[in-house]
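Is this the right way to post structure tokens for a design question? Let me know if I should format differently. Anyway, here goes:
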């Protein structure tokens, strides 16, 4: 993909939002023409030139957050430094996710590949990473796993629906959607604030807030895991509309 393909075409209508349909069609054509075993590597190299570095940092931070949680699981449970690192990397990803959108609108550039990469990075940073932190801190029963998986799947569904319906949502004069349907997936960072507080106070593993329900049975789970269920339901809500700032 060349740099020229990223330019967004302006709408001829006075009140209509900017349109990039022509640029996206050209991106599809050029992507389909990529040949050779290493053509995708070349394509991604050109993507780095096209997109803000914030997109790359978001992806790297998301993966490193997951690794930090795993390192905590393999180390001393009383040493919560890796938990803080995992949560901090997720918040760093939230900052760069915000800046990525602002920079893209400022540069008036977009890409189909970039949109998909951004959604996948969001799923890891704001869906999978918080769930892995929760697992590391002690939400490890079978039912806990189901509840955390539900949360991640809600994040996946929310991102997929956004990609499909964003073109149909009402726009302002700049072409930006006026509201979100359901809470945006970065709002899951609010749960990581709670988990950082738990780690600071030593409320981990057997000391998790609200204790354990049905301990020793197949239905054993930590009621605090329901926070993730609530957050997941808010993300996939069709009637909840959150105004964009």
């Amino acid at each position: 993909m060349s740099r020229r393909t990223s330019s967004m075409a302006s709408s001829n209508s006075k009140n209509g939002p900017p349109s990039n349909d022509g640029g996206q069609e050209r991106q599809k054509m050029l992507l389909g023409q990529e040949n050779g075993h290493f053509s995708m590597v070349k394509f991604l190299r050109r993507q780095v030139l096209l997109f803000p570095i914030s997109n790359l940092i978001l992806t790297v931070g998301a993966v490193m957050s997951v690794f930090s949680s795993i390192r905590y699981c393999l180390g001393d449970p009383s040493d919560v430094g890796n938990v803080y690192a995992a949560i901090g990397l997720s918040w760093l990803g939230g900052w760069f996710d915000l800046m990525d959108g602002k920079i893209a609108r400022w540069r008036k550039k977009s890409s189909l590949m970039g949109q998909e990469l951004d959604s996948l990075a969001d799923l890891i940073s704001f869906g999978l990473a918080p769930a892995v932190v929760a697992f590391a801190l002690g939400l490890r029963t079978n039912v806990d796993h189901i509840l955390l998986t539900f949360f991640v799947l809600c994040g996946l569904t929310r991102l997929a629906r956004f990609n499909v319906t964003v073109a149909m949502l009402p726009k302002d004069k700049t072409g930006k959607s006026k509201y979100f349907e359901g809470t945006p997936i970065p709002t899951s960072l609010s749960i990581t604030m709670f988990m950082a507080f738990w780690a600071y106070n030593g409320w981990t593993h057997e000391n998790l807030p609200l204790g354990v329900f049905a301990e020793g049975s197949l239905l054993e789970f930590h009621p605090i895991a329901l926070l993730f269920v609530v957050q997941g339901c808010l993300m996939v809500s069709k009637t909840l509309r959150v105004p964009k700032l």
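Format looks fine. Someone answered above. Worth noting: The beta strands are 179-181, 241-243. The chain has one domain: 46-243.
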